[in-house]
Design a protein that fits this description.
Mean pLDDT: 96
InterPro entries: AB_hydrolase_fold, AXE1_dom, CE7
Order of helices and strands: HHEEEEHEHEHEHHHHEHEH
Protein name: Acetylxylan esterase
Distance between the termini: 41 Å
Number of helices: 11
Pfam families: AXE1 (PF05448)
Strand content: 15-25%
Organism: Streptomyces niveus
Length: about 325
């Protein structure tokens, strides 16, 4: 695979042409206010993992519409005082998996919470969170479910779940709610950016090769799924282009990034045809915080830095969580 997007020097100055809706903030304020009419009801049930270094809990909380959403909460064994917490969101098609696979951040001495993504998990990991909301016609996948209307769009539910996941993590007595970070890779990175724009008091975020950014460019630049789902939908519904673009504008990571208030560590891969680097830089370049940096992997595709990016996060995130 060769480089297919803009040269790196152009990426560092690239700006998205995504148009933000005039009622973007009102849309999300109303959405979150509606979700908070439901009791969060976070429940933490201990689970046996066979591991001596961590304590794990099966979590259920009320997400969008009061729907039950699952997660794992993992602590270093013997924790007695509140810890900073890392909240993670997972990639497209995946689920929360099993708790013994979620050891990096507890091993670094932090509380850790991972959210299940509603309706996903069959691709990898496994999930225990259904999406009880149906939609009109959509192309197979998740990106066009309810795409006719921003109020019905699938990611309205997911982003709301994610904000509630932060609230659920913060509700545990062994979490220092004032020291919360959000992280995620690919779809999880896009959800992280949404949370950064909707939760004003995070201390750090780390979106890794984020999906759901700069829809106008992403959906016309790459033939890779999931972005191709939009093109495939419009291949059939030829007259819905403006309607679809309007819906997606309420969920573009570029607009959430512009509202970010926490230090941020991004990553991009220059051979990434799934989440093209220009779309990642669109969000990074819109991010206003002076403490922001981006790791660039020149000869990698959507796998990005993998363990190298985790190493970068381990060198960067603790200083923000413990400051």
């Amino acid at each position: 695979m060769s480089l297919f997007d803009l040269p790196l020097d152009e990426l560092r100055n690239y700006r998205s042409r995504s148009v933000e809706p005039d009622d973007f903030d009102a849309f999300w304020a109303t959405t979150l206010a509606e979700s908070r009419t439901h009791d969060l009801g976070a429940r933490f049930e201990p689970v046996a993992t066979g591991l001596s270094t961590v304590e794990a809990y099966d979590v259920t909380f009320a997400g969008f519409g009061g729907h039950p959403v699952k997660g794992w909460f993992v602590l270093p064994a013997g924790t007695r005082e509140p810890l900073p917490v890392v909240v993670e969101f997972v990639g497209y098609g995946g689920g929360r998996g099993l708790p013994h696979s979620r050891l990096l951040w507890p091993s670094a001495g932090f509380a850790y919470f991972v959210m299940d993504t509603r309706g996903q998990g069959a691709g990898w990991g496994g999930s225990d969170t259904p999406d009880p909301v149906g939609s009109a016609s959509s192309f197979p996948g998740f990106l066009t479910r309810g795409i006719e209307d921003p109020h019905e769009f699938y990611y309205r539910r997911v982003f709301t779940d994610a904000v509630r996941a932060v609230e659920a993590a913060r509700s545990h007595p062994l979490v220092d709610a004032s020291r919360t970070a959000a992280i995620g890779r690919s779809q999880g990175g896009g959800i992280t950016l949404a949370v950064a724009g909707l939760v004003p008091d995070l201390v750090a975020i780390a979106p890794d090769v984020p999906f759901l950014c700069d829809f106008p460019r992403a959906t016309t630049l790459t033939d890779r799924h999931p972005y191709r789902e939009v093109g495939s939908y419009l291949h059939t519904y030829r007259r819905r282009g403006e309607q679809v673009r309007r819906t997606l504008s309420y969920f573009d990571g570029v607009h959430f990034a512009a509202r970010g208030r926490a230090p941020a560590l991004f990553s991009a891969a220059l051979e990434d045809q799934t989440c093209p680097p220009s779309t990642v830089f669109a969000a990074f370049n819109a991010y206003p915080h002076e403490d922001r940096t981006i790791e660039v992997y020149e000869f990698n595709g959507h796998e990005g830095g993998e363990a190298y990016q985790e190493e970068a996060q381990l060198g960067w995130l603790p200083g923000r969580l413990t400051a």
